[in-house]
Amino acid sequence: MQKKKKNKKSTANKKYIFVVGGVMSGVGKGVTTSSIARIMQSRGLRVTAIKVDPYINVDAGTMNPTEHGECFVLGDGDETDQDMGNYERFLDTNLSRMNYMTTGRVYQSVIEKERNLEYEGKCVQVVPHIPREIIARIEKAADAANAEVTVIEVGGTVGEYENILFLEAARMMKQKAPEDVMTVLVSYVPMPHKIGEMKTKPTQHASRTLNSAGLQADVIVARSEVPMDVVRKEKIAQFCSVASERVISAPDVESIYHVPLNFEKDNLSDNILSILGLKARGRDMKAWESFTKKVETAKKSVKIAIVGKYFATGDFVLSDAYISVIEAIKHAAYEKGLRPEISWIDSAVYEKNKRKLQELKKFNGVVVPGGFGTRGIEGKILVAMYCREKKIPYFGLCYGMQIAVVEYARNVLKLKDAHTVEMKAKPTHRIIDIMPEQRETIADGNYGGSMRLGNYEAVLTKDSLAQKAYKSKKITERHRHRYEVNPDYVEQLKKAGLHFSGQSPDKKLMEILELSQKEHPFYVGTQFHPELLSRPLSPHPLFLSFMNVLKKMKK
Ligand code: GLN
Predict the structure, then answer these.
(1) What DSSP letter does each residue of 272-310 carry, written as one string?
(2) How far is the CA of 377 from the centre of ligand 1 (A)?
(3) Do 12-289 and 298-434+484-502+510-554 show the same overall fold?
(4) Relative to the CA of 529, which ligand 1 atom is closest?
(5) Domain 298-434+484-502+510-554 belongs to what architecture?
(6) Which of 402, 424, 456 best tests ligand 1's pocket when mutated (most atoms within 8 Å of CB)?
(7) What's phi and psi for 448, nearest 5 deg?
(8) Which residue, judged by its Cα, is nearest atom 8 of ligand 1?
């Protein structure tokens, strides 16, 4: 009797949707996964999402942001892929390290288990032990979230070597419970301008490649520039063995937030419900729809410069490195009825030519986001100085806060050779320093273990800009940094007008800085990353307060 009950709990109602990509990378698997999760959630179901990264890296913390975009930090401190940010933003929920896996992470646990004799003397093999570990991880994440539907995005494109074991895991799950597992193929349908017609052949090939991994797409999301017509849908249906109503047209749309609504035009959630034998508990996209209305109706523009350093790759500009910052700006701007016009500026240009700083006057506000290392940092310091002196609204995130403190120490306290030890090992004034406990870890060569990661609390000063923005005395925000404001200089800085309005509960660490609004319309820096917690339906309080000031100043 007892045994039966246990079985019921672990298998009942758990459904899995694998999202895989075909034809090429960058077709929008992340947004598709997030959107599927959102529309299923809107049908009253409990939903979670998992990202699978086929890299050997154990986490995204060791990947170059110029190549892979930002590293998205979760509340528990896990350093993950930026798609996780989209899942959190679309589902309006906090995910955990269980929702993220890489090849490195999977192999690491299999090897650890082997060393611990957990395989009881068996020969441990790539197949089936690796897919089994993947399945165990998927099921664990679904259980932890008590999810009825788990959407799993498999990174990479079908046909590569790298993700094949994840596809094998999907196949094994499907074989075991055919009614509970389905596959969505996100494909690209090009429309070469000279030909003037959508071409379905690459999708047909992708579908066949998926078949060779033992999987059959139940739904094909066809990405294209323009909506797909019935003729093309039927062609894909016929050649890829998918019902034509399950070929979903996914044209380019105004914003990523329009994608779930667009999917529903082709009845995607109904299709998924019927494939998985699920019953909806209603349909509620009202809040989401009203947000997309705000996107459509925001007319007045607000010009914002993001001065960073991870933009250039060859001849292309990659703004992906700051995707959460961009989204946080958008959420707040739309909330205030403004249309954000964002410009990306490489801070290094100001190091070569200080006069160029004048261009910052064109903007309503400047954001200096996080970063690591030495390149472009003197340029960022100049930006902090210029914005302070010219009273241009300034919002510094993490490194953007640290360099604002360095700037203040140099130019207001007149401490020559004030610096962060990240830039200079032994400056006269170690304004941004490493904390003693972390120094030891780094001395041992253990850089990975030396960061302050994930959620930490801060207490806010009464009547400060920060406290008014949050409307609360205590906050929790996500961190990712190694260095801190040196407590030895806090008193001097405070006397000179730089206020630390957010501090760790033990008052040792400075979490937020601000200038009095009598001195400057908006000069704020945070040691944490507020952008990671901004959601379309609940923009971040500090971004809102930044946007509020920009709106008022425009008038
Ligand atoms: N490089 C700085 C530090 O490690 C800031 C980190 C960041 O901006 N995320 O402290």
Answers:
(1) HHHHHT--------HHHHHHHHHHHH--EEEEEEEEES-
(2) 11
(3) yes
(4) 9
(5) 3-Layer(aba) Sandwich (3.40)
(6) 402
(7) -55, -35
(8) 370
Residues 6+ apart with CB under 8 A from 249: 222, 224, 227, 228, 233, 262, 265, 266
Angle at the Cα of 52 from the Cα atoms of 172 and 191, rounded to 5 degrees: 95
Total Cβ atoms within 10 A of residue 192: 9
Catalytic residue ranges: 398, 529, 531
**How many Å apart are CA 352 and CA 334, to the nearest integer?**
35
Element (H, E) at 402: helix 399-411
Q: Which two tokens stand for residue 181?
A: 């597992």
Q: Is the dihedral of CA 375, 379, 380, 381 positive or negative?
A: positive
| CA dihedral over 55, 57, 60, 63, signed as positive or negative | negative
- Cβ burial of 227 (10 Å; 0-12, 13-18, 19+) is middle
> What is the distance, to the nearest Å, from the Cα of residue 506 to the centroid of all Cα atoms in its chain?
30
Question: SS3 for 316?
Answer: strand
pLDDT tens per residue, range 411-441:
999 999 999 999 998 999 999 999 777 777 6
Please work out whether the CB of residue 481 comes within 6 Å of at least one atom of ligand 1.
yes
Structure tokens at 136: 């165990």
Q: What is the pTM of this model?
A: 0.93
Q: Supply the CATH classification number for the domain 12-289.
A: 3.40.50.300
Ligand 1 atom at minimum distance from 451 CA: 4
Rounded average pLDDT per 10-residue block, the chain, 555 residues: 43 86 89 98 97 92 76 95 96 97 96 94 95 97 97 96 96 96 96 89 96 97 93 95 95 93 95 96 94 95 92 62 94 97 93 95 96 90 97 97 97 95 92 82 66 95 97 97 95 96 96 97 98 97 98 89
Cα-based distances in Å from 135 to 94, 132, 221:
22, 5, 24
Residue 203: CB atoms within 10 Å: 28
Structure tokens at 475: 């906050």
9: tokens are 């709990």
Burial of 76 (0-12, 13-18, 19+ CB in 10 A): middle
Report pLDDT digits (tens) over 146-191: 999 999 999 999 999 999 999 999 999 999 999 999 999 999 999 9
Q: Give the amino acid at 116.
A: N
Between CA 413 and CA 519 the distance in angstroms is 16
The torsion angle over the Cα atoms of residues 310, 313, 314 and 315, rounded to 10 degrees, is -80
Fill in the amino acid letter for 132: R
Residue 126 identity: V
Residue ranges per structural domain of the chain:
12-289, 298-434+484-502+510-554
